Amino acid sequence: MLDDMPSVKPSPTKNGGAADGIDRWIVLGGAPGVAPPGVEPLRALLNTDDRFHGVDALEAEAPRAFVLLRDALRTLLVEGDAGPLAGIADAHPLRLVVEQGHMRLAPTAEAGPVDAAVAGMLVLLAEAQSSGEWSRLKACGNPDCQWIFYDTSRNRSGRWCSMQECGAVMKSRAYRRRQRTADGGEAPR
Ligand SMILES: [Zn+2]
């Protein structure tokens, strides 16, 4: 294997580094709400659309396919609508690789680097879906944040990327709303 691009990824996943090519656009381990290694690349891609800071890390130069994939993942995650993703999946077939009795999904051999990276992310998505880890990814309930975090709560009830920050902001907002109502101000509805 030639050294193409340095990877900061610890790479515990066994997808043959299929996410290579997208590595330069995503930052793994961005707190809060870091996900387990197999899911973290998906979360990192989603968070390239950083709505808290109003920064889109893919906006300027990243391949269009990465933007489409990211936005399709958010639509799936937030709206439960798999439609946009289905189109991307159709355009990125996977193959089953058998090595020494072990099997894994991988991009097709003829896929170029961008398509291979997209396909590699689809492999991670399929694995996260079947492991149930996908359902722990959530968008922060603070509308000014919407950061994608991994919910580690036992009953999957987490609503904020961080209790200290967004949790506190949203709770004090709710408190003020209740105060206004109690003071005889306009009721919120
Ligand atoms: Zn948040």
Summarize the structure.
With 189 residues, the protein is of the alpha+beta class. Helices cover 38% and strands 12% of the residues. It has a domain at 23-151.
Helix/strand order, N-terminal first: HEEHHEEHEEH
Structural class given helices, strands, pairing?
alpha+beta
The general outline is elongated
Largest sheet: 2 strands, antiparallel
Mean pLDDT: 87
The amount of beta strand, in percent, is: 5-15%
Low confidence ranges:
1-19
Instruction: Give the total of beta strands.
Output: 6
The order of strands across the largest sheet is 1-2
Question: How would you describe the overall organization of this protein?
Answer:
The chain has 189 residues and is α+β, with helices and mostly antiparallel strands. It has a domain at 23-151. Helix content is 38%, strand content 12%. It has helices spanning 40-46, 64-79, 83-91, 113-131, 163-182; strands at 49-50, 55-56, 94-99, 102-107, 137-139, 148-150. The strands form three sheets. Strands 1-2 form a two-stranded antiparallel ribbon. A two-stranded antiparallel sheet has the order 3-4. A two-stranded antiparallel ribbon has the order 5-6. α2 (64-79) runs antiparallel to α3 (83-91). The structure holds zinc ion (ZN). The site of zinc ion has 8 residues, from loops.
